[in-house]
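Narrative of accomplishments. A recurring question from our advisory board has been how the design workflow behaves on a single, concrete structure rather than in aggregate. To address it, we present the structure tokens for one chain from the evaluation set, followed by the sequence designed for it. No filtering or post-editing was applied between the two.
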């Protein structure tokens, strides 16, 4: 695994060294909800990531042990990307981002239902969600 260059020993700074761009958490989001994605699946996301940026982010996430590449069962020309346990453990971070956004901005209706479940039982939601990801 390639070691990420650290600017300091501050945990926030070190985290930003791994995720300090606007695409990494979107890739992780897609993998949390789809479990597995191909390169083409990421390109279809509504945010419109450029292919060179996507390739760089996938490599960086793989080098840092957040995602892994798997053989695609239906095509030797494709690979599947999947979160590692290290990547799955980012679920609470993304949920907190949702909760913060909901506090200060308007959450779209299609995201509200899950957010209400999280607000009622965050620990239970995380446990159930991770169990489903690990199947």
């Amino acid at each position: 695994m390639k070691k990420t260059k650290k600017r300091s020993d501050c945990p926030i700074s070190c985290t930003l060294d791994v995720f300090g761009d606007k695409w990494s958490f979107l890739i992780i989001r897609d993998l949390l909800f789809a479990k597995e994605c191909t390169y083409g699946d990421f390109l279809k996301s509504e945010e419109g990531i450029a292919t060179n940026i996507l390739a760089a982010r996938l490599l960086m996430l793989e080098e840092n042990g957040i995602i892994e590449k798997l053989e695609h069962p239906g095509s030797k020309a494709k690979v599947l990307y999947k979160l590692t346990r290290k990547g799955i453990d980012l679920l609470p971070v993304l949920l907190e981002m949702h909760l913060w956004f909901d506090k200060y901005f308007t959450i779209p209706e299609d995201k509200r239902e899950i957010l209400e479940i999280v607000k009622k039982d965050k620990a239970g939601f995380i446990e159930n969600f991770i169990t489903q990801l690990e199947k």
